[in-house]
Amino acid sequence: MMKLSKTNQKIDNNVCKALTIACESSLHEIAGFVWLTHRANYTNFPASLVITCVFNTEKEIDGMKALKQDELMIATIQKQLLKVGVVVKNIKKSVRFDSEQACQVKHNGQWADRLALGIVKQKPNARRFH
User: Fold this and answer.
1) What is the percent of the chain with per-residue pLDDT over 90, rounded to a whole number?
2) Is there a domain that residue 70 lies in?
3) Which residue of 60, 86, 99, 120 pairs with 81 in a disulfide if CB–CB is 3.0 to 4.6 A?
4) How does 70-100 read in b/e, with b if 16+ C-beta sit within 10 Å?
5) Residue at 1 is within a domain
6) Which pTM does this prediction carry?
7) Tens of pLDDT along 70-106?
């Protein structure tokens, strides 16, 4: 497993702080939301940043989108990233929604396997759970 450089570790720590705040906020505001994580290839950052917001069920994701709460979550994430100096050009492409239900059905609950499909040329140590 390759270790991040000091500079990239600092960036990753700031991303973690920002996403932790966004996660805590969304836990109280968005029904069914349970956690989020991120992955990034720091040789192509922030363009490679992918944030996965996890819900319990697919039905909860559909309900959240019907209420346009996906836009609220994306705005919250973007706001927190901007506070730590991370500017993502197209934040909507960087934020994904997934469910524990889908992971269980398709990957036997193995999130590491499921998330590995989301990004090509991904360094495994660049993933953090919040």
Assistant:
1) 78
2) yes
3) 86
4) beebbebbbebbeeeebebeebeebbebbbb
5) no
6) 0.86
7) 999 999 999 999 999 999 999 999 999 999 999 999 9
